[in-house]
Design goal:
The structure is a homodimer.
Chain A: H1 4-18, H2 25-32, H3 36-43, H4 46-70, H5 75-90, H6 113-139, H7 149-168, H8 173-184
Helix pairs in contact in A: 1-2, 1-4, 4-5, 4-6, 5-7, 5-8, 6-7, 7-8
The first copy, chain A, binds a DNA duplex (30 and 30 nucleotides) through helix 3.
Chain lengths: ~210, ~210
DNA sequence: ACAATTTAATAGGGATCCCTATTTTAATGG
DNA sequence: CCATTAAAATAGGGATCCCTATTAAATTGT
């Protein structure tokens, strides 16, 4: 019998690289080393397996990223670490590039609308997490009262999605972090230098 | 006989909405009102049709956007208009949401690697266009000499890709433009207000 | 060790994938 | 008006899609 978590890990990796439509049940059963009936008795259907693989993958990253974001570091620095962690996730050498969720099912066949709604809801949830953290900062006086936290969250959401896309196109970790450094100059109240960002250090940032 | 441009327009719309893998040749022939042999004699193959539909669509937008970007407006203002035009393209009411290229083939089956390379090259080309414009500005003293134009171009490229993703998820035009306004505060030398951006006007910006 | 039950493997059904050989229809030329 | 060429429609080939009914193997209980 197949270990459930091992199967989900294998499935997640395939879906991550090839997307929902680009991954066949034959790919999945072959990679897991099982026969088709086992896939269906264990996971229900291809769509249900995708849902479980997404949950499984997200659960692994969420605890660490939530800790970063909800820590009592200054929000600007917490956000920096949060984005850097995502950049690291986008460029793991032994994993597919990009984010499994950010770039999933944006274009899709009509018959896969429910799958697309699922990934869209996950993206929206991660934006709402950012917004909630920004709202807390407004309440605590760390951000100006007039801050448009919704748009600010969607702005960094766009950065996250753009990083994933560029990682899929081959961008390296250092590039994504330089990109983050620019995005961070848009932080309310920050005043960016007008002299390139190539002198910033990413590996041993100290707080 | 089928008019070639009409066919490409119909094909582009389908590929735009459903992606390469999510669009079948049956969808295409049905939408064009032709039989399969006509598709293959006119366009060669599904992949070749996709390539031609991309070229066809890009050609339509490129002239206008190139004019905006290469105009002799201050670069900051030209870039604003350029991004606004893309936001408009992402949210046309009678067209699929998002950008046909930005969100295309990021995840794909192994057999469609050549298609993914094609769309990645198009995305890279549009980033290089931005970078070239930024380099020109450096040469003309409009941007500081030390500006990291490559990363700056990829930053706005990420914004463009993020906008497309969020448009696919239902974002409206006004939201994308508020998002652009935040991205523009990252422009070298700019100093953003710390008071939300909700008071900005988008429809009658004067230069 | 034999029977009962559970697990795995095979085989395949019905639909759709991309593409094309063949036939039918239409248009053109003498 | 008939012969020739060109266009469109049908029909289908070989592969793959997601999923499952059935058969074979392994495990369990007595």
């Amino acid at each position: 019998m197949l270990d459930r978590d091992v199967g989900l890990d294998i499935a997640a990796r395939l879906f991550w690289e090839r997307g929902y439509e680009g991954t066949s049940t034959a790919d999945l059963t072959k990679a897991m080393g099982i026969n088709p009936p086992t896939l269906y008795s264990t996971f229900g259907s291809k769509e249900e397996l995708y849902r479980q693989a997404l949950d499984f993958s997200i659960a692994r990253e969420n605890s660490r990223r939530s800790e970063i974001l909800q820590s009592n570091l200054p929000l600007y620095e917490a956000l920096s670490l949060y984005l850097y962690d995502i950049a690291d996730g986008d460029t793991q050498p032994d994993k597919p590039p990009g984010c499994m969720v950010s770039t999933a099912a944006l274009q899709h066949a009509e018959e896969n609308t429910s799958v697309a709604r699922m990934t869209a809801a996950l993206r929206e949830a991660s934006i709402q997490t950012l917004k909630a953290r920004f709202d807390r900062a407004v309440g605590e006086g760390e951000l100006p009262t007039a801050t448009d936290t919704d748009t600010l969250a969607r702005f960094y959401g766009a950065i996250i999605q753009g990083m994933s896309a560029q990682a899929c196109d081959g961008a390296c970790n250092a590039l994504l972090k330089r990109l983050i450094d620019i995005a961070l100059t848009a932080w309310p109240g920050k005043r960016q230098t007008s002299t390139g960002n190539s002198d910033k250090r990413h590996l041993d940032q100290s707080f």
